[in-house]
Request: fold
Amino acid sequence: MKKNISHFIYIIAMAFIAMSFSSCATIISGSTAKISLDGSVDEPVTISSSYGVYEDVRLPTTVEVKRKHLDGQRIKISSEHYAYKDIVLRKSLNYWSILSAYIYALPLGVDLLTNAVSKPRQKDFFIVPLKTQQEADSLNRIDSLRMVAEKETRERAKILPSKYPRHEIVGSFGFGPNQADKDQRAMNQECYHHYPIEREGECFDIIGQSYLTTHIEYHYRLNRKWDLGAIMGWGVSKEIYGSYFYYDRPILPSTEEDDVYSYGRHVYRSFTVAPSVRFTWHERKQYRLYSRVALGLLRHHLTYRYYEDICDDYENYKYTTVHQESIDHLKWRMGYQVSPLCMSAGSDHFRFFGELGYGCLGVFNLGLCISF
Reply:
């Protein structure tokens, strides 16, 4: 008796394990789906589906398709005398998979692997010939010729003419952080330590502590890929510092206590000459993408002037400078520019361009080039 009970428990346990690694949708629906085809066709046809090829069959008939990648599958039909439109399948939810999900996740995972969660949205199709095979072949030939012509047109558009302007004259402006900023910051720190002033931020400052640069360039195109040329660039930075009063300081023998206004002004100028190399990595008739490297010489002239003024006329805001000091430095540096992302667009002779990089030209460089 005990032996029979143990055998019964063993059978139940094995059945439970088999159910755990199986799935309702996969078991009931299978890994393929059946599609019924009918139509007004008086000759045998050949049917191709994802499951296989059915040759010389007469309608109505039933074919099988794989459930994997069901959405968008095509069933192709052909015969000796007629052409047919492909049948495109669309999927919907297989409700047996809901039961798998209700049991627990493992059966649903099996259904997802076999794609048994999907079933064809439509299973019955009626086939009507579109045209005779001769007409279809003629239209296919026309379509093929049209596609070849379109492809040739696209390829011709990509082919650049053998003759193109070789010389370029460029004018541009640069903005943003500049190679000369390091010298400028060092000069400002030196002046902060020497003089009791700080940055004022007046509305009439030209561009604050940043550099505004302008450049003239010439480039010669050796070929479609490589350009050689040179850059000449000028940069300027101007700023006002100070704006406060202090007292009890005799300025002149005739004055004992006067209000003294102290302020500073820097004017920093840079000049750059550098050979330049450009590499074009993508070009069409309307635009060009390229990168640039330039290496040369940078002359940096830094001038800082400190003033102390007294007020002669408070009503009319008239001041007299009673004390003045200046710091003047001239520094030479290796000038460089590395611009990995550059683009020019326009016609063969006039183009606007923009460059993104760092160096003597700044981070952003915008301008116009004339080619001839």
Notes: The CA atoms of residues 93 and 118 lie 5 Å apart. DSSP finds six helices and 19 strands in the chain.
